[in-house]
Amino acid sequence: MIEMQDVWKTYPNGAHALQGVSVKIDRNEFVYVVGPSGAGKSTFMKLMYREEQPTKGQISVNGFNLSKLKQRKIPLLRRNIGVIFQDFRLLPKLTAYENVAFAMEVIEAPRRQIKKRVMEVLDLVGLQSKANRYPDHLSGGEQQRIAIARAIVNNPSVIIADEPTGNLDPETSYGIMQLLDEINFRGTTIIMATHNRDIVNSMRRRVLAIENGMIVRDQIRGEYGYEF
Amino acid sequence: MNFSTFLRHMREGFRSVFRNGWMSIASITSIIVSLFILGVFILLVFNVNNLADQADSQVEVNVFLELNVNQDLREQLQDEISKMPEVSNIKYIPKDQGLEELRKNLGEGGENFLEGYAKDNNPLPDAFRVQVIEATTVPFVAQKIEALNTEHVEKPILKVRYGGETVQTLFKVTALIRNIGLILVAALALMAMFLIANTIRVTILARRREISIMKLVGATNQFIRWPFFIEGALLGGIGSIVTIIILFVGYHQLVVASVTSLNMASMVTLIPLQQIWLWLGGLLLVLGIVIGVWGSTVSIRRFLKV
C-alpha cells in the first residue's frame, strides 16, 4: 500500500528533515505518527501526497512510484488520497455542501451522482442539516467534519491526517476520532500525525515515533510515550 | 471535459465576477478606459483617412478658356490634355453649366450674389475640368497645361487653377496624423493588456490559498484554469460592450451635430455610424475578450507551480 525505502529529505536551507526512513503500511491499517515538533512528522506526511519530493530514496503509494511520477499525473495520485489538516482548509466562499461537492467536480463526476454522494457523506459526518452553511458559520469541530467528508467523498484508499484534532477541544476531538475510526472500519487506511497523548493512549493503534528525522519506534497497539 | 464540467466552469467564472465585486469593477473599468481611448483613436484615424480620400477626389485642375476659342481649337486642346499620361479624365464645362453649378455650390447665400446673371450676360468663361490619377502630380499637370499656351498663337488658355498649397499641406498633415494615430493605438492596446493582467493577478493573489486547496484534492491545472479564463473573457466582454455603447452613442451625437451645424455642403463630413459600427464593434469586443483571457492566462501561470 504505502512503502518508503531509505528516504532522505534535506531542505534547501540545509535542514535534514528525514534521514533514512524505511516503513511499510498495509491496507486498512490505522497508524499514528508521533514525535516532538520539528522531528520530521510533517515532512513524512507531505511526501506521501507528493507535496514534497525526497532528496533520496523510493516511495510508493497506491501503486504509484512517486519518484517517477510526472508533474501532470500528481492530480491522479491525490484523487486516491484524502488529506485532512489541523486548519481544515475549506474553501471559505463555498458552502459546506459545495466544499464537499468540489472534490467530486474535480474528478468530473456527473451532477446527479455528486448530489447523491455528497448528501450521503454529509449524513455520515452528521452535518446534513448544515449543508448550506458557510465555513464561517460552523464550529471548529463541524468544519473538521466537513473536511473529513471532503476527504472521503471520492472513496480514497488512504487518508492522511496532519494533526486533525490540533485545534479542537477534547470532547470534539473524541467525536472526530470516532468518525475516523468508523472510516477505517469501512476499509480506508488512515495515517494520522498527532500530539494528542490521550487519544493515542485510549484508542490503541500502530504508533510510529519520529525523532531527528528517523523512526525510533514502530509499535503495534503502541502508546504515545512522551510526557507532554 | 464533459458538458457538466463545462457548465461548472461557466458557473464558477460568473460567480467569481460577482463575488470579487470591486476587483471586477476595477478590471472592467481599466478595460473600458483603454478600449475607449483606442476606439476614439481608431475613429479619428479613419475620419482623417476619409477626409484625405475626400480631398483626394476633390483635387482637380480647372482650365478656363479665352472667349475667342472656337470649337475646333477647343477640341484640339481637349485632345492634347487627355493625352497627358498623368490625366485620368477631362470634362468640358460650357459656361452655362458652370454658372448653374456655381449656384448650386453656393446655396442660398449665393442666390443674392449671382442675381441678375443669366444666359445672355454670363460672366464665366468656358472651362475644362481635369482629373489626375495621382493627386500629388496636380501642380505638375497644371504647369504642363499652362505651357500649352506657348504652342498656340491664339493663347487660348485664360487661367489654370487648382487647390495648390493648401491641398499639398493637407496631404502631409493627414499622413502625419495617420502615422501618429497608428503608433498610439498600438501602444494603448499593449498598455490595456498589462493593466488587465495586473488586475487579474491581484484577484488571483487573493485566491492563492483556494488554488492550493484545489490542487490538494486533485484538481488538474486545466481544471483550475478554466474558470479564470471564463472570468477574464467575461470581464473583457462586459468592458468592451460598455465601451461600444458609450463610444457609439457619443459618436452618433457628433455625426448628427456635424451634419446640422455644417449645412453648407462642407468638405468635413464624418463617416456615418452605420458604415462602421459592425466591424468597429466586433473589433472592440474581440479585443476586449482577448485582452481579458490573455491577462488571466499570464497571471495564473506562475500560481500553478505548486
From TrEMBL, chain A:
An annotated GO cellular component of this protein is:
plasma membrane
Recorded topology in the membrane: Peripheral membrane protein
Where is the ABC transporter domain positioned along the sequence? 2-228
InterPro entries, per this entry?
Answer: AAA+_ATPase, ABC_transporter-like_ATP-bd, ABC_transporter-like_CS, ABC_transpr_LolD-like, Cell_div_FtsE, P-loop_NTPase
Q: What is its main location?
A: membrane
- GO terms for biological process? cell division
Family annotation (PROSITE patterns): ABC_TRANSPORTER_1, ABC_TRANSPORTER_2
GO molecular-function terms, A-Z: ATP binding; ATP hydrolysis activity; transmembrane transporter activity
Q: Where in the cell is it found?
A: Cell membrane
Q: Which UniProt keywords apply?
A: ATP-binding, Cell cycle, Cell division, Cell membrane, Membrane, Nucleotide-binding, Transport
PANTHER family attached to this UniProt entry: CELL DIVISION ATP-BINDING PROTEIN FTSE, IMPORT ATP-BINDING PROTEIN
**What is the protein's known function?**
Part of the ABC transporter FtsEX involved in cellular division.
Subunit-level organization: Homodimer. Forms a membrane-associated complex with FtsX.
Q: Which family does it belong to?
A: Belongs to the ABC transporter superfamily.
Q: What's the name of the protein? A: Cell division ATP-binding protein FtsE
Please give the organism: Paenibacillus bovis
